Amino acid sequence: xxxxxxxxxxxxxxxxxxxxxxxxxxxxxxxxxxxxxxxxxxxxxxxxxxxxxxxxxxxxxxxxxxxxxxxxxxxxxxxxxxxxxxxxxxxxxxxxxxxxxxxxxxxxxxxxxxxxxxxxxxxxxxxxxxxxxxxxxxxxxxxxxxxxxxxxxxxxxxxxxxxxxxxxxxxxxxxxxxxxxxxxxxxxxxxxxxxxxxxxxxxxxxxxxxxxxxxxxxxxxxxxxxxxxxxxxxxxxxxxxxxxxxxxxxxxxxxxxxx
Length: 259
Prior knowledge:
The chain is an all-alpha fold. It is built from twelve helices and no strands.
């Protein structure tokens, strides 16, 4: 992996990680367009730069992380379902990651849902407090995102809206929930692949995390503003186009890989 490739992948990660568009699908297309060889370090890099994206949430919302212990308790309650399902079905989930078709199909299906989600669930109540039952239900929705191409952000934001949270509150809780979820997932994967990180490539990893951090901060701030004003429809159409693009590339004989 070259420095330029690392920067491009990190930019894609930073932009797509917190948007309801599936970072996995975008990684597939980006790696194919760059003609990258998917080796063990590339796999470790793709997972590790999530730490940079996680840090952007903590920095942007640092006051919320010092608000109260209840904030952490609710995140823990929301995190439990994904932790349990991930532990029990980890091998099955990893096997689905090998299917580009699954990613493409879920991008399209998820896009259709996003086109109509504002019509179905955009009925917020006056009290926007995230209760423990609400947090747990959002956590259940997060489990759906274990299917590649669904998008963790899309699943959790929609989960929040089904509990009558407004788009802004649902999106922000989705960002907060990403911190323990992504930290646990990325940390676990890093433990499995740490031997691929050496003195020769650590600089590329640090650059990737720095780029992902900066880009994710910009993406989060822009996304909240756009979502509050315009809703999800644009993201829905975009997902459908990306999913169809992947399916067309497969039909044309491209050998797409998932890191």
